[in-house]
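$ run holo --ligand "N-carbamoyl-L-aspartate" --emit tokens
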Amino acid sequence: MQQLTLTRPDDCHLHLRDDALMQSVLPDTARQFARAIVMPNLRPPVTTTGQAQAYRSRILTSLPTSSRFRPLMTLYLTDNTTAKEIQYAIRSGAVHAVKLYPAGATTNSDAGVTDIRKAYPALEEMQRCGMPLLVHGEVTDPAVDVFDREAVFIERVMIPLLRDLPELRVVFEHITTRDAVQFVTDAPDNVAATITAHHLLYNRNALFSGGLHPHYFCLPVLKREVHREALGKAASSGNPKFFLGTDSAPHAQHTKESACGCAGIYTAHAAIELYAEAFEQLGALDKLEGFASFHGADFYRLPRNTSKITLRKESWQVPDDLAFGEHRLVPLRAGELISWKMSG
Ligand code: NCD
Ligand code: ZN
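-- output --
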């Protein structure tokens, strides 16, 4: 296949940052996607509806007036999020989900939940209203091996949570293991998952091939090949529980190329093209549109997009770095080729 026309996709998991940093990365997403679920892990985190509305306005005013891109906001769940706050969020129409970060699990997560039971009043209200909970599914227990933290999270947190709140709508974000694929596949229809392009394209060898590669470091960390294969099968299965979420997470170059480098991979510059490569490798380009453009919208109970995008089989070279406020960032595939190009 040399050309592919798709309904314009949605990115169901995106880090946009704020202010000048946001202004640098936003055009990449707005060019490809109709909508994005915008993560709330700013500093300080977006914990109230008022903060989410203000953040949404900052994003909208950074877009050219001709842009039809729409940010879908999320709240950052804390031990103190109240049921009332959930009601405000729902009434606002601007907030589409609430994000659970176990405290300390990843970038800007120190205000996260220390014990999920503390969040039960908010979660019960979300279950009642149908507001999705987006889960960063890794335990933070230092005794658990970093590569096992997602699988252990299923046993310790996901299963008990869904036992207590069986109708809570849950998105297991950026799944990375065959364990998570199995769990989501077997779960009832209120449980879904996002899958990133980088977890479809790379296994953990990318981190260490010929030296240490900080630009392949994200959380949850890349896993073994068997897990990458399971993610590919899930993404290309046509199962509506699995949908596109890039987890594009920009960090300034110097904060990644450091003795203690930040977690996060920037993929927004070529998101849909990277997914097209992954689906082509899987021999499943016909399944890309469902995964990228329909399943997420359906889960979020949003109308499907109607406009189209076109991708052509055409190699292009990714720049070595991109502007990021007053800094630079190194995108995935920097200086290398990507075999699909979005043409309009
Ligand atoms: C994300 C970030 O940088 O905000 N980093 C990452 O590695 N994915 C946080 C997150 O989603 O875990
Ligand atoms: Zn993320």
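-- notes --
The two ends are 17 Å apart (CA to CA).
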